[in-house]
Amino acid sequence: MRAYLPAYEMETPRDLAAALQRMAAEPGVWRAFAGGTDLMVLLEAGKLPHRKFLNIWNLAELRGIAVSSEHVTLGALTTYAEVQRHEILAREFPLLCRAAAETGSVATQNRGTLGGNIANASPAADSPPALIVYGAEIEIVAAGGARWVPYASFHSGYKQMNLRAGELIRAIRMARPRGAAWKQYFRKVGTRRAQAISKICFAAAGRVESGRIADVRIALASVAPAVLRAVRAEELLRGRRAADVYLRAAQDALSAEIAPIDDMRSTARYRRHVARNLLAEFVEVLAG
Ligand SMILES: Cc1cc2nc3c(=O)[nH]c(=O)nc-3n(C[C@H](O)[C@H](O)[C@H](O)COP(=O)(O)OP(=O)(O)OC[C@H]3O[C@@H](n4cnc5c(N)ncnc54)[C@H](O)[C@@H]3O)c2cc1C
Known about the structure:
A hairpin with a 2-residue loop joins strand 12 and strand 13 (212-221). The protein contains eleven helices and 14 strands. 33% of the residues lie in helices and 25% in strands. Helix 9 packs antiparallel against helix 10 (247-257) and helix 10 packs across helix 11. The N and C termini lie far apart (51 Å). It is globular. By secondary structure, the chain is α+β, with helices and mostly antiparallel strands. Flavin-adenine dinucleotide is lined by residues 31-39, 41, 62, 76, 103-104, 108, 111-113, 115-117, 119-120, 125-126, 168-169, 197.
């Protein structure tokens, strides 16, 4: 059994300002350590060049779930367990709760955070498709100030993101739904039903009015270098009668916009096939 733990430094800043100042003083040197569920795996495997970590776990400014009439705002340190326990999230953002419930084990759900899931930038992460469907925005803070960015444009390629040295994710914000209810659909497909990294993760929502798909959003993980919104497939569904969609065309569009690969968990062919099937199942949900 492997038991390798290199020497490392860990500091616990007293508040967010102190953390940001530490990062600004030595850009790129100090790395945020939240739940540690991704970092500990890399550290122990000897795959983490970083040796200096800021323990942000106790930063109150990154905690809590705030609800206003317009938004639900989750601190970056919100854990999967906290997501699942929240009544308004369960009612209004069920895709995120499903993703949280299907992430890792109970231990990982108690410790793993949404901010960590986003900043780890894995194309196979499970919460990003739900965040894209809900049009989430993320707040990024640095010693010099704060900015909000749409989450859909945050990842620009494999492990690439709009986060500079010295910046932290402070919060994730989602607009509360208004008007007619959206039909929502989530499927994570892995080797097992629990404790498996996704072969493919599919989250989607659609609003059907008088039998027509008035609006639709579809996002997938594990099928491209970064989590992806399937805009071309969406275009072929929007405005159609839900019971009468030209499914094959939408599936072909989806197939063309994803770029799955063969890896240790699955094959490109299988992922493409399953993506098409999940789209068909989602369309059935819209029609039903
Ligand atoms: C056994 C196991 C099972 C898992 N199963 C799943 C799964 O099913 N689905 C899934 O998606 N993931 C899974 N994961 C991955 C992991 O649990 C998640 O990605 C988790 O959300 C990471 O959060 P964390 O707080 O532990 O991040 P950490 O490990 O603390 O950090 C991860 C990265 O994010 C950065 N970071 C953390 N917080 C911030 C912040 N606020 N601002 C800027 N950067 C930050 C860190 O510097 C680091 O680069 C699994 C992990 C393990 C060990």
